[in-house]
């Protein structure tokens, strides 16, 4: 099979009346989802030529998912844009994409009116009356190729302009086949979707469901601000699987949500995006001793994840969790500053990824694509494309690969190269301290740490001196009542950078 729709239709035939997606307000069976998608796809195919980007300016919902597949039926690729983002950033995305068609709902329609762009607008309603033009859709499918783009996801750019990462059908198919096989997903699973659709963690939720017939249960984002309500929802919907960002899991644990209620049907918890604090992971392990826990690693540019590490046994304080070994079809290696491969354990280098499922690069940004996607010689007269992640890592004595922070989180202070994430890991070993975030005050050349917890400041410093050298102890440690997450579910470092600049 070369097209995602082949898998959608196979699942439609196998499980026509089973739940495909449920957003709490609207539940669609696989037959209803596919029918709705074909109707929307017929509409889109009459408005835009195949191969073009179609922007969906809407939050996640059952009907948004149908619109995404509708875009694919039209032979185009979808780009989800969160309407809550600043208008200026939305306009920057439009400038990169140059979309001919933008899909809106009643709420986001007003946002689009504020842009000066002349585009075709499609107002998405829950009831679609367009008759399916099967001949049109079949002709589009007949001409499709596995290298056609499936979706685009925007990430921050070093220049300040967002970069649109574009991913093909083949890249997703190759990854999800391995993903669903390794973790043994089945049609009886009920996947609790945490991530917004413009974040690539959701790709695993969506396409694991499509490939297996598992139910996709969309969790409204507002529930994450009230853990008891969230846990009631997980139990009510009988969720079996959580494929979540680290910060979402940590938030529930740190705010004592698991003391209120345990979602006992959960059998698998797979996490990614940041280093998982062992304290919060242990809370989940104690609450769900029979569940499978897996650490996943990989940036959006390589299609979701390139390595995985199943957690064996209860984690202990100070333990560092490996990012593990590559998925089949992937080659993951380390390069030093001179571009030479690192094989010696303990030596830090940049994590690079080759093999299956690399993205096609950055849309309308050839220069940045050439900078991050390179080629190396595998054998004489044969080269292989690889991606430089910008992440640092090293091999442990156990042969596993360990994450060692981002290049842009690495600082040089008092003559020492320091990973801010290493200080955070040390802080989170301290009893009574729940979560932390370290940022560099570049103006004053000082490390500032923010933390959640009830422990006195002097006790933090006392315990920290026992864990890290003096040059790694923050100059200032500030208690905060808020540890906000960005829209991708990660700790919002920019919030704290703004805080030390006096802008928050």
The portion of residues forming beta strands comes to 25-35%
DSSP strand tally: 27
Any idea what the radius of gyration is?
A: 23 Å
Strand order of the main beta sheet, please?
Answer: 2-1-10-9-11-12-13-14-15
By helix and strand content, what is the structural category?
A: alpha/beta
Tally of separate helices: 16
Which percent range fits the helix content? 25-40%
The overall pLDDT, averaged over residues, is: 91
How many strands, what sense, and barrel or not for the largest sheet?
9 strands, mixed
The end-to-end span amounts to 51 Å
* Dominant shape: globular
Unreliable stretches, pLDDT < 50, 5 or more residues? Answer: none
What does this protein structure show overall?
A hairpin with a 7-residue loop joins strand 7 and strand 8 (163-168). The model has no long low-confidence stretch (mean pLDDT 91). The protein is an alpha/beta fold.
Q: Key features?
A:
single chain; 504 residues; alpha/beta; nine-stranded mixed β-sheet; seven-stranded mixed β-sheet; 16 helices; 27 strands; 31% helix; globular
Please describe the topology of this protein:
Elements: H1 4-14, E1 19-22, E2 27-29, H2 30-45, E3 53-57, H3 62-73, E4 77-81, H4 87-97, E5 101-104, H5 106-113, E6 120-123, H6 134-142, E7 149-155, E8 163-168, H7 169-182, E9 190-193, H8 201-212, E10 215-218, H9 227-236, E11 241-245, H10 246-254, H11 257-260, E12 268-272, H12 278-287, E13 292-297, E14 307-310, E15 325-326, E16 330-335, E17 341-342, E18 349-355, E19 361-362, H13 366-372, E20 373-379, E21 382-395, E22 401-406, E23 410-413, E24 416-419, H14 420-427, E25 433-441, E26 446-453, H15 457-465, E27 476-479, H16 493-500
Parallel strand pairs: 1-10, 3-4, 3-5, 4-7, 5-6, 9-10, 9-11, 11-12, 12-13, 26-27
Antiparallel strand pairs: 1-2, 7-8, 8-19, 13-14, 14-15, 16-17, 16-18, 18-21, 20-21, 21-22, 23-24, 25-26
Helix pairs in contact: 2-3, 7-8, 10-12
């Amino acid at each position: 099979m070369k097209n995602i729709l082949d898998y959608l239709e196979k699942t439609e035939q196998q499980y026509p009346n089973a739940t495909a997606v449920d957003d709490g307000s609207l539940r669609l069976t696989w037959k209803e989802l596919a029918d709705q998608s074909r109707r929307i796809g017929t509409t889109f195919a009459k408005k835009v030529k195949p191969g073009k980007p179609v922007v969906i300016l809407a939050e996640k919902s059952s009907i948004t998912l149908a619109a995404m597949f509708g875009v694919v039926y039209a032979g185009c690729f979808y780009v989800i844009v969160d309407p809550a983002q600043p208008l200026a950033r939305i306009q920057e995305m439009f400038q990169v994409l140059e979309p001919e068609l933008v899909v809106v709902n009643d709420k986001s329609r007003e946002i689009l009116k504020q842009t000066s762009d002349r585009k075709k607008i499609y107002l998405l309603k829950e009831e679609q009356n367009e008759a399916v033009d099967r001949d049109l859709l079949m002709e589009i499918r007949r001409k499709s190729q596995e290298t056609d783009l499936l979706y685009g996801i925007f990430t921050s750019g070093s220049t300040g302009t967002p970069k649109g990462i574009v991913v093909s059908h083949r890249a997703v198919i190759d990854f999800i086949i391995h993903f669903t096989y390794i973790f043994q997903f089945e049609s009886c699973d009920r996947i609790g979707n945490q991530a917004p659709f413009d974040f690539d963690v959701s790709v695993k939720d969506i396409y694991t469901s499509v490939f297996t017939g598992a139910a996709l249960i969309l969790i409204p984002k507002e529930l994450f601000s009230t853990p008891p309500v969230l846990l009631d929802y997980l139990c009510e919907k009988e969720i079996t699987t959580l494929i979540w960002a680290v910060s979402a899991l940590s938030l529930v644990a740190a705010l004592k949500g698991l003391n209120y209620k345990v979602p006992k049907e959960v059998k698998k918890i797979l996490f990614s995006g940041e280093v998982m604090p062992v304290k919060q992971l242990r809370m989940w392990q104690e609450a769900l001793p029979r569940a499978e826990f897996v650490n996943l690693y990989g940036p959006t540019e390589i299609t979701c994840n390139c390595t995985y590490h199943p957690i064996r046994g209860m984690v202990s304080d100070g333990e560092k969790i490996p990012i593990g070994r590559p998925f089949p079809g992937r080659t993951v290696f380390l390069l030093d500053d001179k571009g030479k491969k690192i094989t010696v354990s303990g030596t830090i280098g940049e994590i690079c990824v080759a093999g299956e499922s690399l993205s096609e690069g950055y849309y309308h940004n050839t220069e940045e694509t050439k900078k991050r996607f390179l080629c190396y010689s595998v054998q004489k007269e044969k080269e292989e494309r690889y991606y430089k992640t910008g992440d640092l890592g090293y091999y442990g004595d156990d042969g596993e690969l360990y994450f060692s922070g981002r290049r842009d989180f690495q600082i040089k202070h008092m003559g020492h190269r320091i990973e801010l994430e290493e200080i955070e890991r040390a802080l989170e070993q301290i009893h009574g301290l729940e979560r932390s975030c370290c940022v560099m005050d570049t103006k004053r050349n000082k490390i500032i740490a923010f933390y959640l917890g009830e422990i006195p400041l002097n006790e933090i410093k006392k315990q920290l001196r026992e864990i890290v050298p003096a040059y790694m102890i923050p100059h200032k440690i500030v208690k905060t009542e808020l540890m906000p997450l960005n829209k991708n579910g990660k700790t919002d470092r920019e919030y704290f950078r703004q805080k030390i600049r006096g802008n928050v």
